[in-house]
Amino acid sequence: GAGVSQSPRYKVAKRGQDVALRCDPISGHVSLFWYQQALGQGPEFLTYFQNEAQLDKSGLPSDRFFAERPEGSVSTLKIQRTQQEDSAVYLCASSLVGGANVLTFGAGSRLTVL
Amino acid sequence: KQEVTQIPAALSVPEGENLVLNCSFTDSAIYNLQWFRQDPGKGLTSLLLIQSSQREQTSGRLNASLDKSSGRSTLYIAASQPGDSATYLCAVRYNTGGFKTIFGAGTRLFVKA
Q: Inter-chain contact A93–B106, Cβ cutoff 8 Å?
């Protein structure tokens, strides 16, 4: 596609619910990143994929967070048993290869946990 | 700890003014540095990417410089316009940080007409 597409744009969940956020990167982009952005802060790294391989998941805040990219294209970020502190904007970015190239970001998925 | 700091946190200027946004990083061993723009409720748009071997990049009214020895980058905006109002984020990929890019908290810019 022409850009990075994320869905849903907005998600409201009750505490304890599971959520799944989808990212559709630019076609042909090898690298895919997930970031978490709290209000008024810069994005914080969560995880990185090179094709289908998850090479870095050091930023995932707990084992409730899980990400996958099974066919090396679309990626899903899953949060289990959501808590209020999970409320944030979740941003997906893709690039041709690693971090050497310009990162192209999606518009983000805003998660609100009540 | 590898960090990125941006000063000022917020800036308000009259239209037409030239301005400088500052970014500092804690480790000179960087792979590249990017400046992004973020509009409210939107994702990030890449403005300029400076590789480690470069000293500056220019695009239109924007110029970004990189001084690894002092751990600083500046984003210069010439002849500012109200449409430049946004949050500007500096992001660094360190040589030893794996694949992650570390972001500053941003500078919120408001250009008054």
A: no
Q: What does the pLDDT read at residue B100? A: 85
Question: Quick check: A99 contacting B, CB < 8 Å?
Answer: yes
pLDDT digits (tens, 9 = 90+) for A37-75: 999 899 999 999 999 999 999 999 999 999 999 999 999
Cβ pair B104:A42 closer than 8 A: yes
pLDDT digits (tens, 9 = 90+) for B30-86: 999 999 999 988 889 999 999 999 999 999 999 999 999 999 999 999 999 999 999
Burial class of A23 by CB neighbour count within 10 A (0 to 12, 13 to 18, 19+): buried
Q: How far is A56 from chain B (nearest CA, A)?
A: 7
Provide DSSP, A17-72: --EEEEEE--TT--EEEEEEE-TTS--EEEEEEETTEEEE-TT--STTEEEE-TTS
| Rounded CA separation B33/B19 (Å) | 19
Q: Which of residues 28-87 of B touch A (CB under 8 A)?
A: 31-32, 34, 36, 41-46, 49, 51
> Tell me, what's the pLDDT at A46?
96
Task: Kindly list the residues from chain A whose CB atom is less than 8 angstroms away from the CB atom of residue B100.
Answer: 33, 45, 48, 56, 58-59, 99
Q: Is the predicted pLDDT of residue A97 greater than 80, yes or no? A: no
